[in-house]
Amino acid sequence: PAGLSASTFPAKLWRLVNSPRVRSVRWDSRGQGLLIDRSLLERELLSPGDAHGAGTEGAGPAPDSFQATHFGSFVRQLNLYGFRKVPGWVGSTAPGDAGGWLHFRNPNFRRDRPDLLLRIKRLTRANRQRLAAGLEV
């Protein structure tokens, strides 16, 4: 949407989840959350051995799309932008299996509402204080 910088984490995530070339991140069945395959995301987008996309031969976005090389850093970005893991959700593999699908939600990240992306703000210390005081970020 107009007014949203294409370089922000939410904008990049939106492009990836809607890209037919990305297999590691997809919408849940209701279009209100993300399903993330950890092992595939690590290979597809976070590969530290290929930080500038060399050798991908146009197979997908550059691995440095999120300037992260570890899954934990990616999840930290999700958390900083208000995404929360859906508790008790079990993916396609056994519970505790690091290779399974993980489910994350943010009320302002929905398949049918790209306009809501403008409401997603990074939770900085100042923004957390504003939220605690009942103010809008």
UniProtKB/TrEMBL annotation:
The keyword DNA-binding applies. Residues 5-123 form the HSF-type DNA-binding domain. It is found in: Nucleus. Keywords: DNA-binding, Nucleus. Pfam families: HSF_DNA-bind (PF00447). One of its GO terms (cellular component) is nucleus. GO terms for molecular function: DNA-binding transcription factor activity; sequence-specific DNA binding. Belongs to the HSF family. This is HSF5 protein.
